Fold this protein.
Amino acid sequence: MSDYLTRLNPEQRAAVETVDGPLLVLAGAGTGKTRVLTTRFAHILMTRRAWPSQVLAVTFTNKAAKEMRERVSAILGQPAEGLWLGTFHALCARMLRRHAALAGLEHNFTILDTDDQMRLLKQIMVAENIDTKRWPPQALMSAIQRWKDKGLTPDRVTTAEDVDFANGRARDLYAQYQRRLKDVNAVDFGDLLMLVVEILRTNPDVLASYHRTFRYILVDEYQDTNTVQYLWLRLLAQRPAPEPQNICCVGDDDQSIYSWRGAEIENILRFERDFPGATVVRLESNYRSTRPILGAAAGLIAQNNGRMGKTLRPGRNDADGDKVRVVSLWDSEEEARMVGDRIEQGQRRGDRLSEMAILVRAGFQTRAFEERLITLGVPYRVVGGQKFYERAEIRDAMAYLRVLNQPADDLAFERIVNTPKRGLGETTIRAMHALARQEGKPLVVAAWRMIETGAIRAKPKAALHELLEGFARWREALPREGHVVVTATLLDESGYTDMWKQDKSPEAAGRLDNLKELIRAIGEFDTLAGFLEHVALVMENDENAEAERVSLMTLHAAKGLEFDTVFLPGWEEGLFPNQRALDEGGEKSLEEERRLAYVGITRARKHCIISHAANRQMYGTWSSAVPSRFLDELPEAHVEREGGAGAHRNRMASAPSAFSGQFPLVARKPRVIEAGSWEVAERPARTAAIPVGQRVFHQKFGYGRVVAAEDNKLDVEFEKAGRKRVIDTFVEKA
Ligand code: ATP
Ligand code: MG
């Protein structure tokens, strides 16, 4: 038997060797679905059933595509070239360039980003005299995206699929939008798939040529395909008889986490309908995780209804391991400290940083961990997203603060002078630059000069004047109101907050959350200048290109990946399960949130550390955070709870008192400062919980007496273990 086949179990081998005919691999996390797909790819090539260019392989991310290319190359013993291997978008872009003319485009068409799309749509609406206040273009944009996810070109949108917009004009506007795109030789992301599907539907010769080309089709993460992606796959796979329909999809219904982007779990059922006689293979041995990790994940996902049902048993020889840790902490800062400490402990044991990941539910959560890792000097990367201080909205807000702090900061001023749009045209800005250069003065001075001399049209002049006066006012308020309040006020009064509130794109809410997080971060510093310096240092720190780094990412981005150690922070009601998701989708979303939790836990090979904080600043106020219901759903047998033990079990009791046994009670409603649309709260002071001299108990070190206390760190003289420095939440008064 070939070497690569011996590395598979019998079921996996069957899935690899059943090369002809449709095949569906339906199996739980870590059972080797991706390994099967990769090996199958190599097997097809090794047995000379097809050339590399005759296999079409779809992955969910570019990173996964790269990994698959490497794995196939390793099995082949040479670089795999000329592959049709990539994400749906990448593969469709390549096809669309080949057949651009059939879609009325030139082959060098541009792919628009969301900003450009929006601008185009607005232009059309304005030209059609549609009141964009009453009918927000964003709503139309999301309708168009939904249609595109279903493969509906304007003429295919039926009355049933129509939306209530601008008195029944939606379909017509969609048609105009598509025409405009063609005029400017551009497509949006949704077009990549939809236009290719349309080409394949209406050009039998093109479809036939692909039928000849693609002898084998391989699809990873099948549970998250949407309708148009499914249609594309079906068109390509349904080769006319007597050719076999060699399509192999692997997936896990329990890991379907993209329904908010139009993914249709029903595609799994459709597969068996559309490809009659499909072989269905189930894999049941998990080779990734230890028994407790699997047990915890299985217990959690068992709470979902309507599952296809799968068995998952540990397949590793060394499946015994640590229980899943659930750690209760005081607040997010302490949570970040706990994670940082454990990462350092791991490093000391010789664990690799690239084998550790912090997986969060919402993007704003990375900030606290990034800061902690920077303080500790631990290199990290943010996967599938930007580092907190590099995000556009944070850079904008920082630019405002830099100008506030230092009016002559031209780079910052330039960034925000027309963000949000203040009607300052390029001519005005160029004139401002010229004047500044000529006089050797900063841009702000030139701007004042232009207002005074009237070298600027009335409307932009008023807007510019308002901005400059704003800065004067905010600067003047700074000593009186404090930098936190002024930041909040500034973001509102400059129109910046509103810019994102008006924005109805899916990212806008996350951006507002990031701005809130920024205001919280500023609160941790005594002065604005101190904060700005901190951020400048944080940003600079980044330039080492070390390979060994901790990975930070959202749970959504972690699909298909694995790490020895996985941290899952922020398991609190509202944050995870996420309130916004629940508000939008009710019970169905709760199940999707639970699947997301399942994806998170099953990324871990050896250690899984879940945490929640007892206090979190959410929606502007400090409040006691209720531990996530998912914590209750983890089977006790596989879990070990640390710090504030028992807190989670009292979840149903009224929240504040639930913690009183473990955490010293603080004023639940700290002083809240209202500043415009932002509520800014002072962090609840932690009362000196454990005084020097107190006898304490520590899970690991046993009994001892506190000899010194500093912040949250205690020096304890333990009776057996000797003197140790410990974090106070880890000890109980004895
Ligand atoms: P996910 O659902 O999370 O995408 P998956 O089903 O795709 O998981 P893989 O990533 O392919 O699972 O495999 C999980 C881990 O188990 C990988 O490290 C893989 O190399 C290993 N593995 C898979 N099959 C075997 C096997 N037969 N023997 C040993 N290790 C295996
Ligand atoms: Mg996989």
In short: The pocket of magnesium ion (ligand 2) is lined by residues 33-34, 220, 560 (CB under 6 Å). Residues 314-379+544-652 form a domain with the Rossmann fold fold (CATH 3.40.50.300). The chain has five domains: 10-97+194-283, 110-184, 314-379+544-652, 390-538, 694-733. The first strand starts at residue 23 and ends at 27.
